[in-house]
Amino acid sequence: MKGIARVDKKTKDLAKRIRPGEIAIIKHRDIDEVAAESLVNAKVKLVINLDKSISGKYPNLGPKTLIGSNIAIIDEASKDLMEKINEGEEVEVIENKIFKSGELIGEGRWLTKEDVQQQTEEAKKNIAHELDKFIENTLEYAKKEKDIILNGISIPNMKTQIKDRHVVVVVRGQNYKEDLSILQSYIREEKPVLIGVDGGADALIEFGHKPHIIVGDMDSVSDEALKICDEIVVHAYPDGRAPGMERINKLNLEAKVIPAPGTSEDIAMLIAYEKGGDLIVALGSHSNMIDFLEKGRKGMASTFLVRLKIGSKLIDAKGVNKLYHTGVKIKYIFALVLSALLPIIIISMYSPIIQYLLKLFQMRLKILFDF
């Protein structure tokens, strides 16, 4: 297998620039489903991972997603491989060995469908242990963050009118495309405030919508999205440090800064809540244990606290594509055609011309078949 190599320790950054048919060289322990889907969408030929794609910590879904899309994986490749390959160089894989210009530069092991299945099953046995750690970490972080989250954080004045409007918070998470596709008619009719959380803003643009607000640390959103949105909120560390502002300044844009613990999607939901949003629809957000473990942040306490706070105003759109399908079934089309034809048939039976034609047809049949 031969191809141009793209190299990056961050899969989400590599997925933005890799082209179809190229080889992704990453260092990603426990490849998550969202990262895998980004590589599938990029139509990569091969993934070479310098780490374990499935460590056994929990049953992550990334490798299954890649293998299921016929993208091969070389796992646990040589640790120094990234130092030996420059962006855009051609590499060749023969058996489990990796070559550049005919020179052996590393090796790994092929991860087969059977390997993925077996390792995933083994990881499921460890889920109880991980759940215990997750709960302990969540409680620990919840004690530290409860006053900040539940008693309110300082939300600056927003240009976008949110009060008494529906708000859709879009995160580029699992099945976000399917769910966003299903919500198209709702967005057109209700015209809610659209908040993109980092790359969620690009998801909105992909579906033809302009994000009103972008919230995040600015590490995975495009320049295009930042330039066309109405306003930007940079999520900073609780101590006020905001690395994302450096990028905003380079683009000569303006942004508001909110120092707070937790995730950027938590901040987006709090903005919608504190500014009087009538209904908050979370799309692509983290809502189950595997989501939280894939996110990688210990505990994810802030997410629980925020959801407790905003309560009944929150609707989670995750998986709505499996609940509701807009496709028109054949049986409905048949019933519609039949109901339209029925009155025409009844009226025709009472028409003298139709009756005359039917008698002629009956006589023709008698003559033809001699009866």
TrEMBL record:
It comes from the Bacteria. Keywords: ATP-binding, Kinase, Membrane, Nucleotide-binding, Transferase, Transmembrane, Transmembrane helix. Residues 318-369 form the SteA-like C-terminal domain. One of its GO terms (biological process) is thiamine diphosphate biosynthetic process. This is Cytokinetic ring protein SteA. Residues 189-231 form the Thiamin pyrophosphokinase catalytic domain. InterPro entries: Put_SteA-like, SteA-like_C, TPK_catalytic, TPK_catalytic_sf. The chain crosses the membrane at residues 332-358. Gene3D superfamilies: Thiamin pyrophosphokinase, catalytic domain. GO terms for molecular function: ATP binding; kinase activity; thiamine diphosphokinase activity.
